Amino acid sequence: MTSALIDSYGRVATDLRVSLTDRCNLRCTYCMPEEGLQWLARPDLLDDDEIVRLVRIAVTELGVRDVRFTGGEPLLRPGLVGIVERCAALDPRPRISLTTNGIGLGRTADALRAAGLDRVNVSLDTLRPDVFHRLTRRNRHHDVVEGLAAASAAGLAPVKVNTVLMRGLNDDEAPDLLAWALEHGYELRFIEQMPLDAQHGWQRADMVTAEEILAALSARYSLTPEEDGARGSAPAERWLVDGGPARVGVIASVTRPFCRACDRTRLTADGQVRNCLFAREESDLRGALRSGAPDARIAELWRAAMWGKKAGSGLDDPAFLQPQRPMSAIGG
Questions:
Q1: Nearest Cα to Cα of residue 102 among 164, 165, 183, 160
Q2: pTM here?
């Protein structure tokens, strides 16, 4: 049997998303209610040693080449710098990235870079502090902007900015956001709002689509599709802006699914493998870890979990049901 994380459709998972916590210091309207959620109990969370062990198994036994730490908000994890440093010391060394809301990045970017972090994706949905407050229910816009600048100064390049447009709130900002990103040397990526909110209030009709985003951008910029094949398994379709070299991306998970090229496997903060972002089933690795299972057994369980991956997310199926866990508990 192959050692890779292969599924029954021949896709091979080489990109691991590791959620370090389900906690977050924002309350984004498309993710969770204003009062927050019931967080995972601390004993249920993987400890630092368990996280590093699972990453090591993924990298050395299962062919994973890219490791992205997510949350919740991963900067809330006290041991983050140490986890990054230990994972960067693995042989072979994986590429290591971080998806964050940017709050706290201003004081940690240098330490993370020194530990071995290669790059960051920072969520920022608006240039207007008042709209930021409406979207996130927090007055932290300046912290995110400072965090982005700190990441760039630390050499965590390319610095990518993830933006979700919400109808009636920030859907008029696409061209201005791109102008701002170009000015600062960031790579902007728009993401269609996905049905992963804790409230289960997502409605397809309310979502700002990739087509709408591209139309808004094209009113100000000339967009040229990237060469065929340049995307690979990346979730973002990318366009050269005014002939390049700057690019803008759109992740159209809902209207232009990219399941056939998916190369991701996900690990939740409490040690569950998810073979798809929208999966409703999980496979427990924490129990095996804590019962003393050897690496070979954990790798076997992980391979079995990935083998059962479905052909697609099912978003186009009228019977589609959201995962029970929201995005904050799954990891991006």
A1: 160
A2: 0.91
